Model the fold of this input.
Amino acid sequence: MPDWERRLTEAGYRVTMPRRAVMEALVAAEVPLQPHEIRERAQTRHRRLGLVTVYRTLALLMELGLVRRVHREDGCHGYLLTAPGHRHALICQCCARAIEFAGGDDISALIQRVETQTGYRVEEHLLQLFGQCPSCQAATE
Amino acid sequence: MPDWERRLTEAGYRVTMPRRAVMEALVAAEVPLQPHEIRERAQTRHRRLGLVTVYRTLALLMELGLVRRVHREDGCHGYLLTAPGHRHALICQCCARAIEFAGGDDISALIQRVETQTGYRVEEHLLQLFGQCPSCQAATE
DNA sequence: CTCACTGCAAAGAATTTGCACTGAA
DNA sequence: TTCAGTGCAAATTCTTTGCAGTGAG
Done:
């Protein structure tokens, strides 16, 4: 039994076919998926899957911290499986492949500097990097 | 003649009442505004202002770099006047007042670390901080 | 006087809600 | 068996487009 099924069960939710299909699509994806993309991919497993169910499932998975919503520069958003312990996304502008990386001392230092400079108390941060992944760099050069 | 009017003119665009009204609303605002909020505020200057024109004006102002779109944690976005030379927004979770701050060596260091760790080449970054501004901190304590 | 710009209406996305049916526990 | 979960249709919300009229330069 995968960990995410245990998390669902323990929180009092049921493990259903649509939820399995959505999770499998997200696990298989290396890129942040938009709801309609998730639906298309998940339908190979569960034909009748409705877009509404995708939205509801995503809301549930986010609530449980299994999935994160990432922003794109154009304002759209995609959904990405949460890598445990990691918080930030790095997205390839060329192929959309995304990986996550951990925040380290450098982010803490930055936050501390900004707090000192502004007088604000910083509680959350949203950091995403955009660039080119190794294989797209190789393809370009 | 304000600088933004010069920028418009030099780029071959016209300075019109609706554009003035939108800019004034943004200048007066200390918080990121959503399109409908901009419209409501700008209508004190220009009654007939349509939401469509707000969208078109914002697109133009973004193209000229006068305005930035900022993301909120809930996925909505607001528009904020660009502070010259600054790139990142710090938004109060309590009153929504926003200020911008400059990226410094700390961000460069972070990006360099991530590039080394991942092999990606980083070209853009999206950084926003959320917290409490000084006056909201004072009100809470 | 011209043509960029505007407002309206209407189309098109993206997301949410209402409700009767279905299937996981 | 029972109620959480689902799918459909339809409602909302957000944003863009088409087009005839208006006003900035």
In short: The radius of gyration of chain B is 17 Å. Residues 105-118 of chain B form the longest helix (14 residues). Residues 12-14, 16-19, 48-53, 56 of chain B lie near DNA strand C (CB under 10 Å from a C1'). Residues 3-140 of chain B form a domain with the Arc Repressor Mutant, subunit A fold (CATH 1.10.10.10).
